[in-house]
Design goal:
The protein is about 40% helix and about 20% strand. It has 11 helices and 10 strands. α1 runs antiparallel to α3. The protein starts with 15 loop residues before the first helix and ends with a helix.
Amino acid sequence: MDDNSLRGFKGTPAPAAAIAKDAADGLERSCTTVTEDRLRILGGSAGLEHIEAAFRGDGFSPHRHDTYGIGVTLSGVQTFQYRGSRRASLPGNIIVLHPDELHDGAAGTESGLSYRMIYVAPEKIADALGRRGALPFVADPVVDDPGFRRGLAEAIVQLDEIPSELAVSAVVAMIADGLKLHCDDRGGPATQGVSAGIAACRDFLAAHCTREVRSSELEAIAGLDGYTIARQFRRAFGTSPHRYLVMRRLDFARSLLREREGLAQVALAAGFADQAHFTRHFKQAYGMTPGRWQALISTAW
């Protein structure tokens, strides 16, 4: 297989057809040896992020994020603890992780592993499915589906550059359809539409993420009591209002880390009490400290 593959590339992205062919052929780069831990934050947009990572040994400690994580193992054996079991994904397998589900990540062999992952906000999945029924829950987090894999291969090409709004919509729709195809309908919470008040609460939390938001503020916005807001918010967005606020705060913090800002300054700018508070929340969300994350993204590919 040539270097124009899903494993990652420098310079001009590989043609969609070539990558789709690699996906169809299995994406095998199982003999590739990872010599250095690396992490790349690639193209994305609000509610959708795309990364490429390569690790030896333990990559991430147990953590959880408020998005769906849809990935493809590119080389090596990708192992992770998820919903009480140790799982393993081989090159070409699709990984499906659900919002707020605790998981870790490690290389299953000494040669290390590489993979790509697309993170999608659950509200985007719900929108793409017309908010009918439940948020799709795929019981088996390791999926072998050549059609879904080809769709992800094409999506990765589009997300390597700044995608258009139309491209993002197509990527989210493809992922939503793939999740629905493999989902266990007994899974996630019912999503029967998001009221204007709950949507306004989400927007308010995102706009004011660097400060503490009081329950009374959300109650005034939604016209509901705090308990009802909490229940409806989780049904709509897969997480609690507080965790949504913290995750948006961490999104802002990561944008500052990419600009090589110091950890103490980032912690205060993002609204955390101090660096220790920031580090604790960062590790809970991403499975590593902010210092390690900042060091990994600066490593050349």
